[in-house]
Each structure stands twice: as C-alpha cells, then as structure tokens.
Amino acid sequence: MDRVEALRRLEDSRRQIDMLDHEIIELIAQRTFLAGEIVQAKMVLDMEIEDKEREEYIQKKIREIAREKKIDPTSLSQIMKILTSLSKKEQKKILKR
What we know:
Elements: H1 3-44, H2 52-69, H3 73-95
Helix pairs in contact: 1-3, 2-3
C-alpha cells in the first residue's frame, strides 16, 4: 500500500465509522424510548424498575455475543451497563412525571 492508498483508506474508514456512530446513536435513542414503554408496563404490573434477573440475562447474552464476534467481553459488558443505566434513568424520569 502506498501513501495515496493509505490516505484514501483512512478517510474512507473514518467516513464509515462516522456513519456507524450515527446509527448507534439512533439505536440508543430507540432503546431509550422503549425504556419508557417498559416503565409504563411495570407501573401497571406493580414491578420495580430494577430487575436483577433481566440484567443478569442481558450480561450473559452479551458475553456470548462478545465471544462469537471476538469483541472484548469486559468492554462490551461495560457498554451494556451504561445502556442499562440510561434506561433506568429514563424510567425514573418518567415515574416522576
């Protein structure tokens, strides 16, 4: 690979990453919206926001996916914990309305 090819590849890869970042943010927004749907159902069902069994299931599923995709399971688990925390915050915010 020469310098011109390397620069082209760099710019192309960065452009693709920017597009993926946008898609990831859109998916996070959709996931957060669904947290609102979930809290409404939990209110009717008289359930707590925290569901340790569900959280354990998510973490187990994430570890399996990480192994399949050859992604560091610790890092992926941390990302999912952040997303779970975001969902809980959204649910708590809705409960205060």
